[in-house]
Specification:
Structural class: mainly alpha
Mean pLDDT: 89
Number of helices: 3
Order of helices and strands: HHH
Radius of gyration: 35 Å
């Protein structure tokens, strides 16, 4: 082994813990980013399905004639 290779090996060995911490941190960051992207994708699909299902449903309109109640309340105050 040449002296340059030996020096390079010693330098890498001395910084191995720092390099490993950096690699672990980068790996965690990558996994977190992948998880966020997957969660957004699943949420987007869920919202799209919900939107299509709710668009196909008919809404029922209920009307309420409050005339009888109003007549009753008017009769109480007179």
């Amino acid at each position: 082994m040449s002296q340059a290779k030996v020096d390079k090996y010693k330098k890498e060995k001395a910084n191995r813990q720092k390099i490993m911490k950096r690699e672990k941190r980068l790996h965690r960051l990558e996994m977190t980013a992948i998880g966020v992207v997957c969660a957004v994708f699943v949420g987007w699909i869920g919202y799209s399905v919900y939107d299509k299902v709710s668009a196909n449903q008919e809404t029922e309109v209920i009307t309420f004639d409050a005339g009888a109640v109003q007549d009753y309340l008017t009769g109480l105050t007179e």
